[in-house]
TrEMBL record:
The lineage of its organism: Bacteria, Bacillati, Actinomycetota, Actinomycetes, Kitasatosporales. Residues 141-151 have a biased composition (Basic residues). Keywords: DNA-binding, Transcription, Transcription regulation. Pfam families: HTH_18 (PF12833). Residues 23-121 form the HTH araC/xylS-type domain. It comes from Streptomyces prasinosporus. Residues 119-151 are annotated as: Disordered. It comes from the Bacteria. This is Helix-turn-helix transcriptional regulator. The keyword Transcription applies.
Length: 151
């Protein structure tokens, strides 16, 4: 008969192994977010059933692999909209968005505005202000009367 502690040790080893796999899945999503990824492909890469991957990923990171992937795409899209000079459709394509409607909905949920509104708001705030000439006469400064002891 096995020692009772062996079962607990085996379960702990399995949890650690699953955590390592979840970290690899998360890293893959972070690297390959623009590629077509789905839970089945991620599960095959992790060598585990999709249902188990979903449960373990949610335990480790608080959201499903698909939600994490979508959030990563929205995060990258926001950066591109702020700094990339691309249109919304180009950004959707660049981040691997398979469904524009689903992407726009998630973008709005996470950032509080649609991708179009986000781009407009950040483009307006990023435009440099016009340079204005300084006034010819500055503000009147109080001057002390000249005295030889004060240069």
């Amino acid at each position: 008969m096995c020692h009772p502690g062996w079962g607990r040790a085996r379960a702990a080893a399995q949890r650690l192994s699953d955590f390592v796999r979840m970290r690899r899945v998360r890293d893959r999503i972070d690297r390959e977010y623009a590629r077509p990824l789905d839970v089945e492909a991620l599960a095959r890469g992790a060598r585990m059933p999709a249902g188990r991957l979903g449960r373990r990923f949610r335990q480790a990171y608080g959201k499903s692999p698909y939600a994490y992937l979508t959030d990563r795409r929205v995060e990258r899209a926001a950066v591109l909209l702020r700094h990339g000079g691309l249109g919304v459709a180009e950004v959707r394509s660049a981040v691997g968005c398979p469904s524009p409607a689903a992407f726009d909905t998630r973008f709005t949920e996470l950032l509080g505005m649609s991708p179009d509104a986000y781009r407009s708001a950040h483009r307006a705030s990023a435009e440099p202000g016009r340079n204005r000439e300084a006034p010819a006469v500055g503000p009147h400064l109080a001057r002390r009367p000249w005295h030889p002891s004060h240069p």
